[in-house]
Amino acid sequence: MTALSPRTSETIELLSHIERRVRWLSTWTIHHANHVRPNLDGLKVGGHQASCASMTTLMTALYMRVLTPKDRVAVKPHASPVFHAIQYLLGKQSQDQLARFRGFGGAQSYPSRTKDKTDVDFSTGSVGLGVAITAFASLVQDYLRGHGLSEANAQGRMVALLGDAELDEGNIYEAVIDAYKHDMRNVWWIIDYNRQSLDAVTSDRMFTQYDQFFRAVGWEVVTLKYGKRQRAAFAQPGGEALRKWIDDAPNALYAALTYRGGAAWREQLLADLGSDDHARALVERHDDDALAALMTDLGGNCMESVLDAFEGVQDDKPRLFIAYTTKGHGLPFQGHKDNHAGLMNPSQLEAYQSALGVAKGREWEPLAGLSPDLEQRVRAYLEGVSLARASERRPEGAPIEVPSADAFPVPAGAKQSTQAAFGKILQSLARESSALAARIVTMSPDVTVSTNLGGWVNARGLFSREPKEDVFKRAKVVSPQQWTGHPRGQHVELGIAESNLFLSLAAFGLSHSLFGERLLPIGTLYDPFIARGLDALNYGCYQDARFLLVATPSGVTLAPEGGAHQSISTPLIGMGQDKLVYFEPAYVDELAILVRWAFEFMQAPKGSSVYLRLSTRTLDQPTRSRADFEDALLQGAYWQIPPQPGASLAIVYIGAVAPEALKAHAELAEDMPGVGVLAMPSPDRAHSDWLASLRAPWLNGPRAHQPSHVERLLGQLDERATLITVLDGAPHTLSWLGSVRGQRVIPLGVEHFGQSGTIDDLYRAHRIDAEAILDATATALLPRQDQSP
Ligand SMILES: Cc1ncc(C[n+]2csc(CCOP(=O)(O)OP(=O)(O)O)c2C)c(N)n1
Ligand SMILES: [Mg+2]
Questions:
Q1: Angle of helix 759-766 relative to helix 770-781, nearest 10 degrees?
Q2: What is the best residue among 127, 199, 325 to mutate for testing ligand 1's pocket, by most ligand atoms within 8 Å of CB?
Q3: pLDDT value of residue 207
Q4: Distance of CA 542 to CAs 114, 115, 380, 537, Å?
């Protein structure tokens, strides 16, 4: 943070006016979308006026005074209109975008890095994730600094603005634990403590607990409970009784009285405190409006208290601000328990508008309703705001050169698994002094060793803010793992919580765009546990973070290690997940090509993250020249054994079941020469290419049709050929192949899980062995009932 200009009473005055503008504009934006803009499909548009109103003080203080361009913020999803109103006042958002709030191409329902047309630092939407990513972004900052890629004074604050019910999301506590282990700094989490969620008022039992959670893991906790007006009242005779009443009041009662207003406050306070003469006098000195204003003067809605709290911070310790607020602050439904998705009706809006002096037809004017003098002073203030003057906050980071294929030699060995080979490929990169090797950062949720990253970590070290000796090494305990921690280490060892792996990949995978330095993050985990972090994975992809996800072992092929660790549906996740390309190589020469390609694709403007589904099964490796299959591999499929032209049968396989496909083929060869074996290392690439080729003529006219890669490959078979597909995963992964040319598919795959055994046992039980393929062939040869001869 830079030094702030001294705060004067005028600062507070102007910020309070700005806050009123922010509240008006965010309320109006939602109102306009719901009540003014034509509604063409009759569906609710929605928006959260109450959730916005409770945050306007906090956000105005931050954006209009406290934040600097180095700071990055995750805004509570349903406060999106507040964020957009602030950007609008700072001259960084258009009226057109606000007027199209929640419409196609307009300001998004929830702040979005990829879809919004203004400066969103972190997307939010699925509550909890935006909070946690700020902790990992601060780790990225520390990492860059440790690696000499940023200066000490370049450190910004990673800020999350969160709802209080958002604290129910367990991923927040998982992140806090890893944050503590990594001694993370420069994180501010600011709770909009309005004590209401979507459905209800927060349980009183939680009322005092949050601070203890956080203090236990090294956070400084700042509670903003009372506003300035309340503090002044507490200093008066009877004030202590009032304070005690406020402290003891149940959340639901406080909210209900807030909704009902001054007369209700008076009735309740006099009933409870009336026997105390001083307290009674204190209450009676306030008329109804003044009493309501006093009782709702909570710390998080008091500009001066908020600024005191933020500006009082002088260090980089992680900080939790518990800012008491009123949900719907200043709006007619404030405190009402059902106000979460409540919308003001047109007459309420009209009353609010006229109280602010905003003339009809001038609703979008940024400073409507202010006197000319005030307008001029506010405008001058806004022009001086640090974020208004900031220019580029979306750097791209220089690309990292990916060395030629020589730097990615195919690991030697006649029999190998893709998992072990991946470890070897990284080990050979670790020996290089290339720019690429310097920018790789690996991370794993406590499965570094068992996913074969140990060698890489031995060579490149653990990332740690402070040097950490390998005590076992000093004590001469023999171990293949020799892990020393230091600020230049290139592996981030995470706790088991997989959600943290994905949030960490998301943060490191945005380094180029947040901090202007590109990193190439690689995360390893067991394939089934992708499901544990799936929402966080989706979240990273949504933000267009770029990373390489290596999931291993996978399927039932992990055999005796298996049982509960088997994965079935991950190929479908790989195919269905936007901004993630899925590959499942069988052979290590494929893998070497794919790892190199992934580093390029992760950096390509139209690229994405990459997911490699690997295996511990050792396979006999083919001897062949990469030129024979490289291009086709990258398009997702190639003929490993080409069919005779017009063949009536092909076996299509993914990954570790290659030997079964080849064995079945060999057995068929005598009776049925010409059967092809199609290797399909990326059903994802092949499928999306096929869909794109279908779409092209619809979008660009009939001449735009180009047959897709897989269409060309299958075109070598008879049009009535049968495709027997097989993989260690959900059979649906390849069923779509039947629609490419209308050929029949018999899909083999895994539908149930949980039983361990040998590979032979399991392949037999799940019917993905050679015998099952031959059985399917027999079915294929039967005359089809639907086809007349
Ligand atoms: C993972 C997830 N679950 C559910 C929701 C739906 N949702 C949006 S806001 C909300 C309640 C939030 O309450 P709180 O965090 O207290 O916010 P505020 O009171 O400020 O609106 C819920 C359940 C969501 N966005 N994300
Ligand atoms: Mg709340």
A1: 20
A2: 127
A3: 64
A4: 7, 9, 37, 9
pLDDT of residue 789: 46
Query: Which H or E run includes 486?
Result: strand 485-486
- Taking the C-alpha atoms of residue 301 and residue 292, their distance in angstroms, rounded to an integer, is 14
DSSP 8-state secondary structure symbol assigned to residue 35: I
| C-alpha–C-alpha distance, residues 280 and 277, integer Å | 5
**Pocket lining: 206 vs ligand 1, CB cutoff 6 Å:** no
Burial tier of 583 (Cβ tally within 10 Å: 0-12, 13-18, 19+) = buried
335 within ligand 1 shell (Cβ under 6 A): no
Q: Which residues of the chain have pLDDT under 50?
A: 1-2, 789
- Closest-CA residue to 189 (of 258, 133, 125): 133
Which residue matches tokens 């060309």?
712
Whole-angstrom Cα distance, residue 116 to residue 96?
12
The owner of tokens 């291009």 is 631
Strand order in the sheet with 638-641: 638-641, 676-679, 647-653, 717-726, 744-748
Task: For the chain, report the end-to-end CA distance as a whole number of angstroms.
Answer: 80
Query: Is residue 20 exposed (0-12), middle (13-18) or buried (19+ Cβ within 10 Å)?
Result: middle
**DSSP secondary-structure letter at 533?**
G
Does residue 552 have its Cβ closer than 6 Å to ligand 1? no
